[in-house]
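User: Assemble these into one structure.

Assistant: Restating your components, then the assembled model:
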Amino acid sequence: MAMNVAQKLIDAHLAQGRMHPGEPIALTIDQTLTQDATGTMVMLELEAMGLDRVKTEVSAQYVDHNLIQEDNKNPDDHRFLQSAAARLGVWFSRAGNGVSHPTHQQHFGKPGKTLLGSDSHTPAAGSMGMLAIGAGGIDVAMAMAGEPFHLKMPEIWGVKLTNALPDWVSAKDVILEMLRRHGVDGGTGRIIEYYGPGLASLSAMDRHVIANMGAELGATTSVFPADEAVRDFLESVGRRDDFSPLEADEGADYDVHETIDLANVVPLIARPSSPGNVVPVREVAGEELTQAYIGSSANPGYRDFAIAAEMVKGRQVSDWVSFDVNPTSRSILETLTRDGHVLSLLGAGARLHQAGCNGCIGMGQAPANDTNSLRTVPRNFPGRSGTREDRVFLCSPETATASALRGKITDPRDLDFDVPRVGNPSDPIVDTRNLMPPLPQSESSRVQLIKGPNIASLPEFEPIGDDLELTILLKMADDISTDEIMPAGNEVLPYRSNIPRIADFCFGPVDADYVGHAHDSGDHAVIAGRNYGQGSSREHAAIAPRYLGLRVVVAKGFARIHWQNLVNFGVLPLRFDSDADYDALEAGQTLRLSGLHQALEDGDTVTAETPQGAVTLRHDLTPRQVEVLLEGGLINWMKRHRDG
Amino acid sequence: MAMNVAQKLIDAHLAQGRMHPGEPIALTIDQTLTQDATGTMVMLELEAMGLDRVKTEVSAQYVDHNLIQEDNKNPDDHRFLQSAAARLGVWFSRAGNGVSHPTHQQHFGKPGKTLLGSDSHTPAAGSMGMLAIGAGGIDVAMAMAGEPFHLKMPEIWGVKLTNALPDWVSAKDVILEMLRRHGVDGGTGRIIEYYGPGLASLSAMDRHVIANMGAELGATTSVFPADEAVRDFLESVGRRDDFSPLEADEGADYDVHETIDLANVVPLIARPSSPGNVVPVREVAGEELTQAYIGSSANPGYRDFAIAAEMVKGRQVSDWVSFDVNPTSRSILETLTRDGHVLSLLGAGARLHQAGCNGCIGMGQAPANDTNSLRTVPRNFPGRSGTREDRVFLCSPETATASALRGKITDPRDLDFDVPRVGNPSDPIVDTRNLMPPLPQSESSRVQLIKGPNIASLPEFEPIGDDLELTILLKMADDISTDEIMPAGNEVLPYRSNIPRIADFCFGPVDADYVGHAHDSGDHAVIAGRNYGQGSSREHAAIAPRYLGLRVVVAKGFARIHWQNLVNFGVLPLRFDSDADYDALEAGQTLRLSGLHQALEDGDTVTAETPQGAVTLRHDLTPRQVEVLLEGGLINWMKRHRDG
């Protein structure tokens, strides 16, 4: 069968299942990527599993998110991660080395490989002919332990690119065009594969921009072939031997088809407050702004900064615009410095920040209240910038810089000078000195984990009992989000590495007394309506209630990721067979489940005794999931699996 | 009479009084400096006074403190300050231009001038043959309105410098030697004047280091003559015409005498957690560290970064040390970039931060818990770094960098390479493009103030009563700093323009229950030991407790600026006549003051009834200060003054 690039990547890593869209498959994982905001939990999970050394070809831990150190918690986490990386045979990229995605691409990007990352923009590595997928922390922990990654086979969406981009239009406008056409859920259940003659004019870093922000379409990932552009990139970073071509077979087809004529793409901009609100820049031109922001994994390349530098060289940004420059990696910052671009940016009035994610994730650089901020970042959800009344636009470096110069939103084609000719250098600085390679096992096994006072080991969870008697502590409505189960925000997030402490905030927005009641009751259940656990994928929303004794959630329906997270941490998710039973049950009543193990193994229903009589509940679990659940979650399952 | 430099400066600006140490004097002020942490309050005060345009030769507003933007509050303040500067005829230095002190020196430093700044390190400009004094915001507001500055004539402390510094020893070690000899209150009531043949080897920026950190001795200010070094500096920044010589007369004398033989100075370090805990570096050598930090107004010069860059060039900082580089001005960062030093620092593993005060004031870069951090900053008060269990050492760039390389505290003389020969460049980049000059009055009068939602009016304070009955809410030890009275850091500083909100953090490091108790008690007193209110000049340390009902502080002694701030906002500062009374009094007891107004006007003592009987307290106030105090502070006084 003639295969496209995505199919070739999946076929080469298929551990279970068949490549039929919608069917469950499992993929072997070659590489993993973790960052500091999610990595501490991953490392604590690996500690709990008792893993000595990762089983992947490459696992890399980046420190790029929590770079503002207001107190000891962030630097303590950095030290913990460094010690965990040293102990587990993981590459460690220290604070200041930059954002995971471009750094990973430079050092480890390799055609034909799979990458699983605990960051939603992991698909950026699709630029290198890799299959790169974002996942929850414990999924990445499992991959580091050598387990395959489970998902449903996506559809493959072929996007044919023709011709080449005009002056002042760049890769960011291509992905904005995709978002303009399809919105923020247009890619759900799909892998986007770019192909066609238009690829010839897109460098590997341009493709990174497009693959990265494919996450905003809801796609599983995006892939590009490994062609000349990828070979050029690898050659420029001194890794020509890591190149191998990977292209679609002659006659390969796609499940869905799309064409973009690059010559017709214009400068685009996503208006507040969704990456899907895309319009031509000229439609909003003339509005004043107070901030122009370049950088982030959605425009990380040398070119993306160099073109801004050439545009402002000898000119001056508007007095009323904060022009925030966020280098994306140490290597790129060094190269920009060497080549004089940093000097041009500074002279024009830029604020030069340390290399990292920074304002893209609300880590500083919040804009002034109710004023326009133009950013090259991938997301502009309301308040993500840190400012509650924010007005964040997403655009290319060309548009952001043109607008900084004019003090008004400006289509770069309307500037009074010619587009600077800037490419990626053939001799970039590749800073390998500040990336710490895995220790040999003889040394790593002696490394002790360094835990600051806020880093607590994961609590151990015992297997679920065969006979349960559980008080229903909460009865919740439809559409409860993980933000209501486990709030985020400044007050809570610092405790991300401390389950006992973060558990104090569980269900706070739903019922301020839940935590106290849970401490009194011990093991308990909650009931909920439809779409329970929608929103953020944070696994704390399963771990922390489990820590407080939550053993069973009965709902009319579950959001997919939270449902998986509950199983992963040993909480049984059950569905009402009849909505009438939801209506009849009340908080404070008792659920009794008897012979639960057998019931889960033998069928898809469980019977609960309640004050209203027997109630039928459904579980929807695969046999593997039943096994995981009966063990008390994936960590226990892994321990037995490994030891047995 | 033969005069020294300090006397000449005072004599030329004497508006009231005589130059007899201890007598009240008033000085005309040529220049003012405000920064963003204190400046919003200054601008609100000027707005309240109805000022149209500043009356000084130069007033400059810097944005250097609150650069981390977690939400809209900081950028809203920056915009408010920019609009206020435009309205009032004030120079505006935007975020990213760097720390006020080196920036002011480069653009406005001028021999023979007086400078009043709402920042305790304003004395740095003493390096230029200026009389530069730190003061509370409202004193600076008064100076901007053309009022003279009131103080007591200090003693002049002549410090003769002989010979020259040895290799690896630099200006920071000179001021650390002063602190080693005299501690954190050794300069109280004094101006330190440096003279002698040792000056020849100290550049203007070296002198900046020494004058800046003279604040840590409690000195009113430090002065240097305007000699060849000052002329060279002004010539290098293109302002040769602003030079005029200013040297002590032949035969001039000092009130106090001191000699430092520079040849005998060794690398020194202040241990946690006071700038006065100074020991030779070799005494603590070998201890591990997790952070080395260069920058801040206490080591702001090109040389201070260039020597670090030359030391690490082609080398690597320890894997376990965060090497934080904080450029102090845009111009210096541009020059370091041009000259290749930024590249050397990055290649060695530095984290390069935006130009500004940053971690020096707890604005990010907090160290890991209970680990050593070596910093070139001027202060290491407990918790100032942001980490409660911090261990911050103060040292030269040479010592910080040597320690970063080794991963252990290291005397730079013990390195295995020669000291790099680095000076200040004769052709520094002087970035004037990003400094906004005052608008002509025809334009400025049309500018509207831009106020974000967090900028609140000043609370009104009623005059102090004649009979007071006050519970003592706190009994504090010696050397309580304004960081303990009104903490800074990123949690607190965003509320600097909002007194009711910032008051919630008052005395937090001393007693977490103070705010609650103050709400319960209403009007109250606190007692303290020596040197109460040392450190930062922030007037919030007076206004916010006053807002909570603080009416009287009784201490064994006060730091000058805080003492003045208390008076300015209507809080009565009293001194124990006998230290035994401090020992006898306890928190929770009651102070009764009767016939207070008459007592203050008639003499220098006040009698308090206490459970231990009558206690004699001294007030040290000038008649003008008594008047201000009885009005309820300077704003009330100004309103009556202007209206009457």
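Chain A touches chain B through 57 residues (CB under 8 Å).
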